[in-house]
Amino acid sequence: MIIQSELNPTRIALSGQCFRWEETAPGTFRVPFRDKCLIIETQGSGAEVKNPAAEDAVWHEYLDLDTDYAAIRERIDAGEDPFLHEACCFQQGIRILKQDPWEALISFIISQNRNIPAIKRSISILCDLAGEERKDLRGESFMTFPTAGAIAAMSDEELDRCRLGYRKDYIRLTAEAAVSGELNLDEMATFDDGKLMGQLISLKGVGPKVASCVMLYGFHRINAFPVDVWVKRILKDKYPGGYPFEKYAPYNGIYQQYMFAFYREENT
After folding, report:
1. Which of 10, 28, 70, 220 has the fewest CB atoms within 10 Å, counting from its CB?
2. pTM of the full structure
């Protein structure tokens, strides 16, 4: 579908915003989204997205290709903020995916106090147990992310197999709320940022960090600024006088992603 320099699959896959990108060969990823799946291959400084032509609009939206990330990076002055400028340049190619809100909500509830391999393992088992089998454009099987109804119908034993720990009850309660209509993600998508944050943190097991992740990655509120242990270190080490949120609005979430990926890579 497209080759462009502002799309680096490997950096996106390692950025901590998605947990089901599967690297099938160096620089090549299989990417499930709802009931579809694309193949995306690194090509030089850009990437080639392979999918049926009829799905171009779906993947164009998912990859956020209408946003000018180069212009967003260029807003940062190297002299005023050398750390963020370096992070933006080094992590060029990261985009904030427009993920499914339901998948993002459940995934980031699962993510609490866990490393990425453990998160991916739990989500993979959950999909295997409650998702639906589909075929990608190569004819290979993949599993969709489970619906709220499918998760609500899972037995305790099945949820235990997903290695969710204390998060199991949160996942079940969230699924049941969605099934009953108490939780309406379509309606929440119309809320302003403040109201959306309030609605998310009212859910059992969702604190400010998880809510911010869901806002940024599930509802594409690109000013949301998740703060985890890595970002806390960044704010302490690089911005002892305070991070200039107002100055960098409305793109704080994008800058957070560049900083997070860069700092974690430099310190692990």
Report:
1. 70
2. 0.94
